[in-house]
Write a structure and sequence with these properties.
Blueprint lengths: L24 H29 L3 H12 L4 E3 H7 L4 H13 L3 E5 L7 E5 L1 H21 L6 H13 L9
Antiparallel strand pairs: 1-3, 2-3
Helix pairs in contact: 1-5, 2-5, 3-4
């Protein structure tokens, strides 16, 4: 693992025409730290929401973004982007939220090609009830361990690495 001259996967492809740059120790440490965050952090934030409220982190993010939107309403595409999910994943979650009475979908009156998702009063109540659980997890798992400089660096890095889902500009 310490030998940076060995391939991580062993597969070769058309990119082999270029000089392959293996990760140095600093790059490997950065990559390992990032992938650990990406893979482990969502579960640590989701666990309290599942235990106390019975829904996923993604469901919470969808409801939360709707609760903060003007008239508690967003186009589905914008909501998918804000919640960092695909349109198909969002559609499935919104369908479940509709069945629970938390969200309603309607055609966008400004452009019928789009669908709006709107948070109901019941949906607002449930996200308002779950918000302290989520906030405690965010503070405990992430923010309380970081100082102001760390938080600013995290924002800067997140902006540089911002991944836009397929189909979004």
């Amino acid at each position: 693992m310490g030998n940076t001259s060995e391939p991580m996967g062993g597969a070769t492809g058309p990119e082999d025409d270029e000089e392959l740059r293996w990760l140095d120790e600093e790059e490997k440490a950065a990559w390992t730290g990032l992938i650990s965050l990406v893979l482990l952090l969502p579960g640590k934030l989701e666990s309290p929401l599942r235990q106390e409220h019975g829904f996923t982190l993604f469901e919470y993010l969808v409801l939360s973004h709707l609760s903060e939107a003007p008239q508690r309403t967003l186009r589905m595409g914008e909501l998918a982007f804000l919640a960092s999910g695909s349109l198909s994943r969002l559609s499935n979650v919104v369908k479940r939220c509709e069945q629970r009475g938390w969200v309603v979908r309607t055609p966008d009156p400004a452009d019928g090609r789009y669908t709006l998702a709107a948070l109901t009063d019941s949906g607002f109540d449930i996200v308002h009830l779950a918000a302290p659980t989520h906030l405690r997890a965010v503070r405990h798992v992430v923010l309380d361990s970081l100082n102001s400089t760390d938080r600013k660096a995290l924002v800067r890095i997140a902006q540089k690495l911002r991944i836009v889902p397929d189909g979004f500009g």
